[in-house]
Design brief:
By secondary structure, this protein is an alpha/beta fold. About 35% of the residues lie in helices and about 15% in strands.
Length: about 220
């Protein structure tokens, strides 16, 4: 039997609500939420909804990473599962789109390189990159951060109990009701056969169960 590469496999998969070029005239305001989404949970959706509505964005893209450059030890499941779970999570919200660019590109993806690509691909768009307080305090470690802040507006959303932002880079902060959820803890709950109801969308929980994801999580 022929073994397909990841790219060939993804090419054969049909995704809905995928990010495409803007069809409206004028500037297009796009928020981007990057992450492993391993799995996506209700906290991700709440952050994206609050940023999207408060800043009056036209779209918010959920962009799963192929291999996170800032977390060398982080292990993720197959990209096809993370893409599918995001697809299920955002279903029914016209504000949300799936952006699979970094997964298709593969390897380590640096935000500066991704944003250069998007600015060339979507010249009529202004981008708002959504981050949490932990990422904001680590901005000094990001690749070519001084150039990145000129290309995109960074938008910060605080999570409960996180320290205040003390960095020098401009971040637009959005107030949002937050739920203290963690993908790491959700994976552990699945491994321990505990309930994840009301922590992830129901169709995401069904997908995890159907494909037996995280059952061997260590």
């Amino acid at each position: 039997m022929e073994t397909l590469s990841l790219e060939a496999l993804l090419d054969k998969m049909t995704f809905t609500q995928v990010a495409t070029a803007a069809t409206t005239s004028g500037r297009h305001r796009i928020g981007i939420m990057g992450g492993t989404f391993n799995p996506p949970h209700l906290g991700h959706l709440l952050m994206a909804e609050q940023v999207g509505t408060q800043l009056e964005l036209d779209e918010v893209w959920f962009m799963p990473t192929a291999q996170p450059p800032h977390a060398e030890e982080k292990q993720t499941i197959e990209a096809k599962h993370r893409l599918r779970m995001v697809q299920h999570a955002i279903k029914g919200n016209p504000l949300f789109k799936l952006q699979p660019y970094e997964v298709f590109k593969g390897g380590k993806n640096y935000t500066i390189e991704t944003m250069r690509h998007f600015l060339e691909e979507f010249p009529q768009s202004d981008f708002y990159f959504i981050i949490g307080t932990d990422s904001a305090n680590d901005l000094h470690t990001w690749q070519e951060i001084d150039e990145l802040v000129k290309l995109v507006q960074l938008v910060g959303v605080r999570r409960p109990g996180e320290p205040p932002y003390r960095g020098k880079y401009p971040v637009l902060w959005v107030d949002s009701p937050m739920v203290d959820l963690s993908s790491t803890e959700i994976r552990l709950r699945v491994y321990l056969e505990q309930s994840i109801r009301y922590q992830v969308p129901e169709n995401v929980a069904d997908y995890i169960k159907r494909h037996k994801l995280y059952m061997n999580e260590q």
